């Protein structure tokens, strides 16, 4: 089987990163995530392409979208060296979706569906392991290892204030991208509110059916 080219969509906190890590391992594909790429380049000077903010870090902390030209370039570069991939965090608006069309074909487009109340709970309780990039949750998925527990950090944008703004930006800009794939009849919907294991079983089945 050729390596699948997967696009995972869903609101902030829906479980994209959690499921993408599993897909990357199970299907031996690259995890391309614009959020991680931008966090690794937080201090990059982008003042020439944004009127209000100077760096991706400032934009992320405000919960707004980083300019299209910055993220388009990140994705184009990452896709050029990947056979199979799971793309997570992009496209986040219709212009990015159009840009993606010119970069690659997709085998599977899936979206994780989770209620708003649950999204807020997941985002504010999310913690990251800065050494491994592993994703945890204070309540749903705490680490077993005490050393890991002690070094966990909260993302700057997982505060209640920024979460509210990110969800607003999601409804305004990203939900229309999901509609676009739905209108084309290629969208696979997965109930993201189940346990991570049950979501994974459904995600795996959707991908295996498609390739
Ligand atoms: P989430 O956990 O909400 O899915 P991400 O890690 O994907 O968060 O993204 C964090 C932030 O990085 C976003 O709020 C946004 O500021 C920026 N970002 C990530 N991907 C994109 C993108 N495709 N276009 C514009 N901004 C992006
Ligand atoms: P996204 O990448 O879509 O923003 P994450 O994968 O980072 O989402 O998950 C957001 C938070 O929710 C994390 O703290 C993660 O541990 C937790 N989480 C992910 N999937 C589930 C699930 N199915 N049930 C409960 N919590 C989950």
In short:
By secondary structure, the chain is of the alpha/beta class.
Explain the layout of strands and helices:
Layout: E1 5-10, H1 16-26, E2 30-33, H2 34-39, H3 56-62, H4 68-80, E3 85-88, H5 94-101, E4 108-113, H6 116-124, E5 126-128, E6 135-137, H7 146-151, H8 160-183, E7 187-191, H9 196-210
Parallel strand pairs: 1-3, 1-4, 2-3, 4-7
Antiparallel strand pairs: 5-6
Helix pairs in contact: 1-9, 4-5, 6-8
Portion in strands: 5-15%
At the fourth CATH level, what is the homologous superfamily?
P-loop containing nucleotide triphosphate hydrolases
Query: How far is the first residue's CA from the last residue's CA?
Result: 8 Å
| Beta strand count | 7
Low-confidence stretches: none
The CATH class designation is: Alpha Beta
What integer value in Å does the Rg equal? Answer: 17 Å
Mean pLDDT across the residues is 96
What is the structural class? alpha/beta
Strand order of the largest sheet: 2-3-1-4-7
What form results from the Cα inertia axes? globular
Bound molecules: adenosine-5'-diphosphate
Helix content: 40-55%
Order of helices and strands: EHEHHHEHEHEEHHEH
Please, could you describe this protein's structure?
A hairpin with a 6-residue loop joins strand 5 and strand 6 (135-137). It contains 9 helices and 7 strands, in the order E-H-E-H-H-H-E-H-E-H-E-E-H-H-E-H. Helix content is 47%, strand content 15%. It has helices at 16-26, 34-39, 56-62, 68-80, 94-101, 116-124, 146-151, 160-183, 196-210, and strands at 5-10, 30-33, 85-88, 108-113, 126-128, 135-137, 187-191. The longest helix is centred in the last third of the chain and has 24 residues, at 160-183. It is globular. The chain has one domain (5-29, 82-210): Rossmann fold. Helix 1 (16-26) crosses helix 9. Strands 2-3-1-4-7 form a 5-stranded parallel β-sheet, sandwiched between helices. A two-stranded antiparallel sheet has the order 5-6. It is an alpha/beta fold. The structure holds adenosine-5'-diphosphate (ADP) (2 copies).
């Amino acid at each position: 089987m050729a390596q699948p080219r997967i696009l995972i969509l869903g609101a902030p906190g829906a479980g994209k990163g959690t499921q993408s890590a599993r897909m990357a391992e199970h299907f031996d594909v690259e995890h391309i995530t614009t959020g991680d790429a931008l966090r690794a380049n937080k201090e990059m000077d982008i003042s020439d392409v944004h009127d209000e903010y100077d760096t991706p870090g400032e934009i992320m902390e405000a919960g707004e979208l980083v300019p299209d030209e910055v993220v388009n370039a990140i994705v184009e570069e990452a896709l050029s060296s990947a056979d199979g991939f799971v793309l997570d965090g992009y496209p986040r608006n219709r212009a990015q979706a159009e840009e993606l069309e010119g970069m690659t074909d997709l085998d599977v487009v899936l979206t994780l569906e989770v209620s708003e109340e649950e999204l807020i709970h997941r985002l504010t309780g999310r913690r990251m392991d800065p050494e491994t990039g592993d994703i945890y949750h204070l309540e749903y998925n705490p680490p077993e290892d005490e050393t890991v527990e002690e070094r966990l950090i909260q993302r700057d944008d997982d505060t209640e204030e920024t979460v509210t703004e990110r969800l607003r930006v999601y409804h305004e800009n990203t939900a229309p991208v999901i509609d676009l794939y739905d209108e084309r009849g290629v969208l696979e919907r997965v109930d993201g509110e189940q346990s991570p294991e049950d979501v994974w079983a459904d995600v795996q089945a959707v991908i295996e059916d498609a390739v």
